Amino acid sequence: MDKLMDNPWFIKILALLMAVLLYSAVPNAASKTNDINVPGVKTSEILEEIPVKAYYDTENLVVSGLPDMVEVTLEGPMPHVQSAKALKNFEVFVDLTNAKIGNQKVKFEVSGLSEKLKATIKPASVTVSIQERISKEFTVEAEFDRELIKEGYSAGQPTVKPNKVKITGAKDVIDRITYVKATLDGKALLDSTVSKNAQVRVLDKELNKLDVVVEPDTVEVTIPVKSNNKTVPINIVEKGTPPAGVTLESITLDVKEAVISGSEDVLKDTNSVRVEVDISKINENTTLTLPIIISNGVTKVTPETVKATVVVAKSESEKAVSAIPINVKGLSDQYEAVVNDPSNRLINLLVFGPGNAITGLGPNDFTIFVDLTGLTDGVHTVNIQVTGPTNVTWKPDKLSAKVTIMKANA
Fold first, then answer.
1. What beta strand segments (E) does 82-178 contain?
2. Tell me: the pLDDT tens digits for 58-87?
3. Tell me, what DSSP letter sits at residue 293?
4. Which residues, other chains included, contact 112 with Cβ-Cβ below 8 Å and sequence gap of 6+?
5. Would the pLDDT of 233 be above 90?
6. 38: Cβ–Cβ under 8 A, 6 or more apart, which residues?
7. In the chain, what are the domains?
8. pTM exceeds 0.85 for this model
9. Which tens digits make up the pLDDT trace of 207-216?
10. Rounded to the nearest 5 degrees, what angle is found at the Cα of 136, between the Cα atoms of 135 and 140?
11. How far is it, in rounded angstroms, from Cα 270 to Cα 150?
């Protein structure tokens, strides 16, 4: 084979044979083939919501009144109809490349559809408005529901970042812009500063949303939220009157000021809180733990209780109680005693105490005695002892008695 491949005549003969074979394989253009034309089955389909495109100078013009979708009915051979329905590889459009500013009626056209298909568009035409496209800068106003601010807190002036946006649209629509708002949505109650992204809404004076392009279409809204606090003095309110013989000298609190929380209006009208001290039952110095009383609308007070120290002075009266007999106690049965001094065995007392405590006192309320326990016969000087009501004091007119003890007669 190597020798044959090196022989030029062998190569020439081989090339001739290949040319003959190729010639025989090409169909004869002069010969006529018999084509059989079998008509296909025709059908129609309604395609809904086919998007519409518009071709115009988008940099300088704005087109309004053009529907986003139309209905297209396709008629033709079934395979072509089904293919177009499945692929939707055609386009419905309006050509406004040469349109002028103003209102005009335009027809819908179709491109990319097989020549064997017929398309019917509904609606077939539409009146559109072509206007000059302009851009203008507007300040964004933040908006939020103040009911979301937790009780006892208040919201400051919200801020927007960026605070201005560029709005592009038809001139007559731009002229209708009344409000440019960024509304902070949410349902949770706010008790601290919050920052969130919010969608920019462009509205006319009747709060209808306008069809414009906003750049940027979202902004960051920050709402400063702070607790409403105020420091106020704690007032002492006395209730009732002191008991008879008791004089109130002072009431002092361990804390003199309290911090209250509430709405700004409530805090503005609240200048103090109070504690109430019932002095009608206080007979001596005492310390009470009392709640701080707040006015309506105040939501919180710190501290909630305070200690009140009450200092009183008792005003004493005096009364003379006379002729109280001296009793003898502790004397052995083998002895008897005679009180020599005072000879009448009577003692007078000067009683001191609150007026209501001493008013009804008499001799029967006191016991006066001498204790002779362990003493034998002879003359003895012994102390006079007195017992009586615990809420009074007294002073006897004699502090001792002279007593003679002797053996009892058998």
1. 91-95, 102-107, 109-111, 118-122, 125-139, 141-143, 153-155, 159-161, 164-170
2. 888 888 889 999 999 999 999 999 999 999
3. B
4. 89, 90, 91
5. yes
6. none
7. 42-132 (2.170.120.30), 140-227 (2.170.120.40), 229-314 (2.170.120.40), 317-407 (2.170.120.30)
8. no
9. 999 989 999 9
10. 130
11. 20
